[in-house]
Every structure is written in C-alpha cells, then in structure tokens.
Amino acid sequence: MTRPSRRVAVIGAGTMGSGIAHASASAGWQTVLTDADPDALSAAMTAIEGVLKGAVTRQKMTAQDAGQIRGRLRIEPALPEACREADLVIEAVFEDLEVKRDVLGQAGASAGPDALLASNTSSLSVAAIARGVAKPERVIGLHFFNPVHLMRLVEIIVPESASVATREEAEEVVRAMGKEAVVVKDSPGFASSRLGVVLGLEAMRMLEQGVASAADIDRAMELGYNHPMGPLKLTDLVGLDVRLRIAEHLHSTLRDAQYEPPAILRRLVAEGRLGKKTGGGFYDYPAT
Fold first, then answer.
1. Is 187 left (phi over 0), alpha (psi -120 to 50) or beta?
2. Tens digit of pLDDT for each residue in 224-241?
3. CB 21 within 8 A of CB 33
4. DSSP-assigned letter for residue 153
5. How far apart are CA 277 and CA 146, in angstroms?
6. Which domains does the chain have, with CATH numbers?
7. Using an 8 Å Cβ cutoff, are 254 and 189 in contact?
8. What value does the mean pLDDT of the chain take?
C-alpha cells in the first residue's frame, strides 16, 4: 500500500524515540512524539533541535530545511490523542514485553483502522508483543539503530502473524526514511542483537581476564576489522543496562552459555555506571 504522506506517532521520547521522530519528520511526514513524562518530551525536542542545528552548521542542510522538519514535529503527552488517526505507529519504550504490548495495544485502539503498528524492540518476540493488539497481522518489528539520524540500517522483524501487505509496507517505510532494511525471522535477538551481543560480552570477558585494556580491545576491532566503534565503546553508547537486559533475555531463551552476562557487566550496572548517559561505563565521560 503506497502512501504519499503519512501521519506518524512515535511512542517513547528517549534516545531512540526522539531519533525515530526526527527521521520520520525528515522523511516529510507529520509526526507526533508522545511520552507520559513531560521532561522526556522536552529533552527529546532539545536533542532534535541540537541535531538540526549541527546539520545546518556543517552545511548538511539549509536553515529552511531544518525549519520545515521542526514544523512537522509536535509533542503530545496523551498517548490516545497522539495516535488518533495515525497510519504509522512506532513504539520505542522500555524493553519490557508487558509494557510494549500494553502501549501498542492502546495505540492500535486509537490509530487509523489500517495503521501499521511497529515495535522498535531489539530482542523481544514481536509475535508476543502483537498479542496485545486487536489486529496482530498489522504488527511488525522495526529495529532502528543509535544514533538514528546517522545509522542507515533498520532491521525488519517479521512475525508469523504479520500479513504480506504489512511486510511490504514496512519495507516501503524504511526506504522512504532513507534507510536500508534487512529482513529477519522473529527469533530471539534477531540478527543484529544476537551477533552484536556475543561480540560485546566476549570483549567484557577479555577485559575481566586482563587480556588487554578496554581501549586496546576496542582498537583491535576498529583497526583490524574496520568496525567504526569498538564493542566496549558501543556498549557505553547503547547503555550497559540495555545490554544486560538483552543478554539476560537471550540467555534465558536460547540457553547458550555465550549469552550469560559477565560479572563485570552486572557489577557496573549495580554501581550505576550505565555508560555515556551516566558519565561512565567502561570509559569515563566528562560532563558537557
């Protein structure tokens, strides 16, 4: 189903939600960002404004283009109102099955009757999330990557309940956003998280065992394998708490020892060292 324009609702104003809302507005779509926390909405709009200003400063876009993107974005704290008559809803809330199932169910009740309902989950079963929605055939996974405005990949996760039309429309959405898609089966960790977490956890074990410093482990992957960012730096960017939840989920569902979270990860999370967002994880980050 080709739609020349869209009415988009993005649920969750954290790092991923704000990035997805920015990408949606940049695609030319009227976009509403919703979150129950007014402070999160305010912070998200500040973050988006910062990205747009940076793009103008670097001459990646004109001030007029930036203004048009801002004009297509608005915030709305009430989820039903934000999703009213939307034809595309993308949830990017906390990585918890019940929470995602609940908010997507609420969204489906308010959105247009043929709306595409997408979850930005990085590891949870999309089919399980879809069980909270009246039309599970309209639910699909759209896994974006951080930072959304720079990362080209979107992982499309297709549960058995999704219709062919839903998959085709999801591919259309990704193309319209200027991204590239990989299509994967709805299985634990999909492709990206399942592979990425193994690399990250092994890097942590190497650090625990004193094989090399965090900086040298990262440089080995950056220089030897041309990774743009080493696995420990990437974990700091994603959030150690996020990586821990994904690892625990994969370990419990796949039962493979390689997904068992290392002690160093559990310790740092318990200490509140969650990565860049808290000023420290495997590295320290000066306050800006």
1. beta
2. 999 999 999 999 998 999
3. yes
4. E
5. 13
6. 7-185 (3.40.50.720), 193-276 (1.10.1040.10)
7. yes
8. 95
